[in-house]
Amino acid sequence: MNKFGLVYNGAIEENIEGKVNIKPVNYEVSNVKVSGNLYLPSEFDESKKYSAISVAHPNGGCKEQVAGLYAQKLAELGYVTLASDARYQGASEGEPRNRDYPENRIEDVSGMVDYLTSLDFVDTNKIGSLGICGGAGYTLASAQQDKRIKAVAVLSMFNTGRVRRNGFLDSDISGIGERLQKGAEARNKLLKGEVIYEGDNPEMTEEETRKMMESLPEGLYRDGVEYYGITHKHPNSNSRFTTESLPKVMAFDVDDRMDLITQPLLMMAGSSADTKYMTDSAFEKAINAENKELFLIDGASHIQTYWVDEYIIQVTDKLEEFFKSNL
Predict the structure, then answer these.
(1) What is the pLDDT of residues 251-261, one digit of tens each?
(2) Residues paired with 36 in a beta bridge
(3) 25 in the Ramachandran plot: left (φ > 0), alpha (ψ -120 to 50) or beta?
(4) Residue 256: partners with Cβ closer than 8 Å, 6 or more residues away
(5) Residue 183: which H helix or E strand, with range?
(6) Residue 284: exposed, middle, or buried by beta-carbon count in 10 A (0-12, 13-18, 19+)?
(7) pTM as predicted
(8) Helices (H) and strands (E) in the chain — how many of each?
């Protein structure tokens, strides 16, 4: 029902002069059209220069969910922010749909920085990046390479390569060879025009989604089905990814080059999150980061950092402190 398609609590419903406004934008990354939402702070003055922050969405997510929520929260703090759909996902273009190549997602983050630097009202020496879940892993990888990002923050980081390779909680290392072969076979099928997918069927009814949710143990995947499939469902959000993506994703690991992050670094995770082991591992390897900090959100699980007010307040307060000090 929201005019801008936003599905998070407290979302902007209309642009009002003097308040935070939202502006849908389009730009290209490697000749592929990207759909983004630019958030402008209250009392925005185009003649001034603003610090800016890119926000990368989770795997399977879109800019209208948690990425938009934190983009809006940061705009309320006075930043120009940009939340964009990854190429091949959401409202952005790219075929086959839901291809999930790490190099694409990493370049998507730099592409957001490209767009922000093109704006006359953005101070190009004061651009930061925030990534959430899978978008957090790709934001870290982008910050390893792209030093235009002056400060990097991540929330509930999900190291997609490690999980696709080893299984969640490193529970299926014996299946690595099988998954690589599966990806190879899917690539051959793609050459003949057949796209094979991993993940849930996006056409499931709410009843079917609830049944699936109830069949899962407590934790990330059960909470994720509820968030993406029921409470914060969006037609542009899709947890599927092409099976031919598997080999490329499995060869990626954000931990491999964490020593290349030299910028100020903030890593945030729920203290009760079953994904916290990935944040701990990457944080330990960020040996050259300036002023690095690990911030735990007391009592929060992974998905709860997306929507529970008491945790959103903690995250926003920490982001305010971090970006104020480092931008």
Answers:
(1) 999 999 999 99
(2) 25, 84
(3) beta
(4) none
(5) helix 176-191
(6) exposed
(7) 0.97
(8) 11, 10
> Which domains can be identified in the chain, with CATH numbers?
21-159+253-326 (3.40.50.1820)
SS3 303: coil
DSSP 191-240: HTT---EES--TT--HHHHHHHHHHSPTTHHHHHHHIIIIIT--TT----
Per the listing, tokens 């934001």 go with: 139
User: Residue 38 is inside which H or E element, if any?
Assistant: strand 32-40
* Burial of 114: CB neighbours in 10 Å, binned 0-12, 13-18, 19+: middle
Helix axes 134-145, 276-285, angle to 10 degrees: 10
Separation of alpha carbons 120 and 112, rounded Å: 15
Could you give the CA distance from residue 213 to residue 37 in angstroms, rounded to a whole number?
Answer: 30
How big is the chain, counted in residues?
A: 327
Chain segment 213-238, per-residue pLDDT in tens? 999 999 999 999 999 999 999 999 99
CA R_g for the chain? 19
